Amino acid sequence: MNSRRRFLSGLLLSAGSLLSGAVRAHNGEKHPGPKAATVERIQQPWGIAGDPAQATRTIPITMSDDMRFTPDRIDVRVGETVRFVYRNVGKVLHEMVLGTKATLDEHADLMKKFPGMEHDEPWMAHVAPGGRGEIVWTFNRPGEFDFACLIPGHYDAGMVGRIVVAES
Prior knowledge:
- The structure is a single chain.
- By secondary structure, the chain is of the alpha+beta class.
- The protein has one domain: Cupredoxins -  blue copper proteins (Immunoglobulin-like, Sandwich).
- The chain is built from two helices and ten strands.
- The chain has a five-stranded mixed beta sheet, with no helix packed on it. The chain has a five-stranded mixed beta sheet with strand order 4-10-9-6-7, covered by helices on one side.
- Strand 2 and strand 3 form a beta hairpin.
- The N terminus is likely disordered.
């Protein structure tokens, strides 16, 4: 039994070491503001990081402790670059994560296992209580995509929204 515990402890330590490069804890540090111009633009099924200078529309979104986004449905056109400006009117941390239902489900499960995760991907923004965040995104593919707060408990409480991307 003792060797089994050592094995499991070693396995957990190894997994933690592997994840440490991709996961940082929420230690009360200030989160970065809008994404820098050096953002790596990697195509995702729901679009690609946008150039702030190319944003054609700004969409304000409110996050609240009733676990809702306002608005919770957004319509855009293929090729449109949108600046989402998030305002957290609540008293707890919220986040905005763009994606597909499948990627959000997968990431929500990971957040449950590692509740202190922080991300710096261009399709994610953490917003402290009373704070603001921003994502600039280019929707270059038609379809229906989602956004959500994946803080443990928030997603399950229904803190989700829908983005409908129509052909031009």
